[in-house]
Amino acid sequence: MNNYEKIWLSILKKREITPNELNILDSELVCPISDFAILKITGNDRYEFLQNQLTGDLNKSEVKSEFSSWCNLKGRVIANFLILNTTESYFLILKKDIADYVLKKIKMYILRSDVKISDITEEMLLVGLANYDIHSGSPIANISGLKKDGDVLELIGGEYEDRPGYLIKLPDFSNRFLAIMHVTEMENVLHRIEHCWEKIVNFKIWNKLDILAGFAWIDFKNKEKFLPQMLNLDKFGAVSFSKGCYVGQEVIARLHYRGKVKKNLQLIKAENNYILKTNDYLYQNDPSIKIGEILNIDYISNATYALAVIESDKLNNAIYADTKKMNKLEVLPMNISFGEK
């Protein structure tokens, strides 16, 4: 159990709450999130520094959230992020198991820039909200103001006025929300949500919702394998083809303007209760030829769902999770409508 989970369990224990499993597609959910880290970027050169490193065209002056990624010189994604611009700093939210690697590596590029990067994971808590309708009587004050993906509401209140939090409407077309709050203030945020304590779900539920939303997170095992377009990151507005140079841009732009993406992220389901594993390969008739690889998996309603990068011209034929063709996979339509940025 990590420190994040211990903090969350201490909050829930005060009210004798046990996270439960609800119908994740229909029920209003309040989900503690424990497997992400938060890096804080400050300094007068923070915008220019990130703009020269990351694939997205960052917002400079507006409180806003957006997706982006950091690539190597070959255009392969090292990590992807949800980025929050507070106007005083940038928060980079990424998978926890790759945070130390990213922190050490990206600090090497600071040189003489006025930039400071710190890991504030232990100071902040994340909680996700799903299946909430936006209307004037929404459970958190002024949530109805979060109409567009990427909109951010600042949350201030409680004993520590100097520790504001933020409520984000995720820019992933899923109509989900993410609250970021100092550990001392998270209970105050939860108190604003109607019947919150009845809707607390298991820590792992958020991963299931990410998979169903078609958003793949890069963790340590999957780093530096895939181009952003293979992960549909360009569809989520995480890649700019018009801004200035950034690491890996030459390869990424060439594919966009001159080539064709031969592999894409797909949502798949295993039949016959077959258990998929991260980094498993996918096959068709020839067991010696790999036509895809699994990134993120989870178990939903007694079935295994996964996000996998698969060769686009292989989708019309049967795909298997093993070389003996015993376990056929179903390729499902993404439950989202992509919007171009």
Topology:
Blueprint lengths: L2 H12 L14 E5 L2 E7 L3 H8 L10 E8 L5 E9 L4 E6 L3 H9 L8 E4 L4 E7 L21 E4 L9 E5 L7 E6 L3 H6 L13 H8 L36 H10 L4 E8 L10 E2 L9 E9 L2 E9 L7 E2 L7 E5 L9
Antiparallel strand pairs: 1-7, 2-5, 2-6, 3-4, 4-5, 7-10, 8-9, 9-10, 11-14, 11-16, 12-13, 13-14, 15-16
Structure description:
The chain is of the alpha+beta class and 341 residues long. The protein folds into two domains: 3-212, Probable tRNA modification gtpase trme, domain 1 (Gyrase A, domain 2, 2-Layer Sandwich), CATH 3.30.1360; 228-332, Elongation Factor Tu (Ef-tu), domain 3, CATH 2.40.30. It is built from six helices and 16 strands. The chain has helices at residues 3-14, 46-53, 99-107, 186-191, 205-212, 249-258, and strands spanning 29-33, 36-42, 64-71, 77-85, 90-95, 116-119, 124-130, 152-155, 165-169, 177-182, 263-270, 281-282, 292-300, 303-311, 319-320, 328-332. The chain has a six-stranded antiparallel beta sheet with strand order 12-13-14-11-16-15. Strands 1-7-10-9-8 form a five-stranded antiparallel beta sheet. Strand 3 and strand 4 (77-85) form a beta hairpin.
Question: How is this structure best summarized?
Answer:
This protein is of the alpha+beta class and 341 residues long. It contains 6 helices and 16 strands. Helix content is 16%, strand content 28%.
